[in-house]
Amino acid sequence: MGPASDIIVAERLEKAFGAHTVLTCVDVALAQREVVCVIGPSGSGKTTLLRCLALLETPAKGRVMMRGETVSQPKPDAATRRAARAVRADIGMVFQQFNLWPHMTVLANVIEAPMRVRGMHRDQAVAEAERLLDKVGMSEKRHAYPARLSGGPQQRVAIARALAMNPAILLFDEPTSALDPELRREVFLVMRNLAMEGMTMMVVTHEMGFARKISGRVVFMDQGAIVEQGEPSQFFEAAKTERAKRFLEQFEE
């Protein structure tokens, strides 16, 4: 297990889909107020790792712990299932394709989970949603439906929706990959502000500039394993492994 400051820890995670091995003996931890960017080629296991940490996938081997308690493992016992239920709402996730409810307004999307899962009174949920929509620059669109919004605004609403649960950590799965550069910048600004406020985040991204500027640690994955990790300045300027060096070469001008 990691240091006491670690919120979530993955130990020796392995995952396969059929005959295809996706994760191989992955160890990673996320500490309080830390921002970690996970990078690597497509198919390297980044999204699967994130989904295991979000308790959306169960590992074939290994375990996930939250605040020192096992919350995911193969064939979970009753104690693990109870622990998972207790912490699930503390893990927020923002998806690549936004995943907003199309039949609900922006405001309704944000208040739904706090009311249903946290048991928050509607007036309190609405007040908090208004604050968060203002935070991500979407308060003027509170009564709009997702289909009336372009991708960047939809993703900012998705971030507000995740924040509405007051999570301990936020996991982002390539949150800007479906956006054009201008809309991408809008979302990055929101994420940068969250990082500056001390939000604990793990971000799967192909945006090297964002990883370099925002993260406190970069994790490089390839073929289902963590090949290298370190501070952005060290990793981007002097990667230690040949595989990481080859990966970074494609981003050089």
Instruction: Give the H and E element order.
Output: EEEHEEHEHHHEHEHEEHH
Structural class estimated from helices and strands: alpha/beta
Distance between the termini: 41 Å
Radius of gyration: 18 Å
Strand order of the largest sheet: 6-7-8-3-9-10
Outline the biggest β-sheet.
6 strands, mixed
Share in β-strands: 25-35%
List how many beta strands DSSP finds. 10
Q: How many alpha or pi helices?
A: 9
- The helix fraction, in percent, is 25-40%
Shape designation:
globular
What are the segments in which pLDDT stays under 50 over at least 5 consecutive residues? none
Mean pLDDT: 92
Walk me through this protein's architecture.
Helix 3 (106-116) packs across helix 4 and helix 5 runs parallel beside helix 6 (181-196). The chain starts with 5 loop residues before the first strand and ends with a helix. It is 37% helix and 25% strand. The model has no long low-confidence stretch (mean pLDDT 92). The longest helix is centred in the C-terminal third of the chain and has 16 residues, at 181-196. With 253 residues, the chain is of the alpha/beta class.
Give the topology.
Blueprint: E1 6-17, E2 20-31, E3 35-39, H1 46-53, E4 61-66, E5 69-72, H2 78-87, E6 91-94, H3 106-116, H4 122-135, H5 151-163, E7 169-173, H6 181-196, E8 201-204, H7 208-214, E9 217-222, E10 225-230, H8 232-238, H9 242-249
Parallel strand pairs: 3-8, 3-9, 6-7, 7-8
Antiparallel strand pairs: 1-2, 1-4, 4-5, 9-10
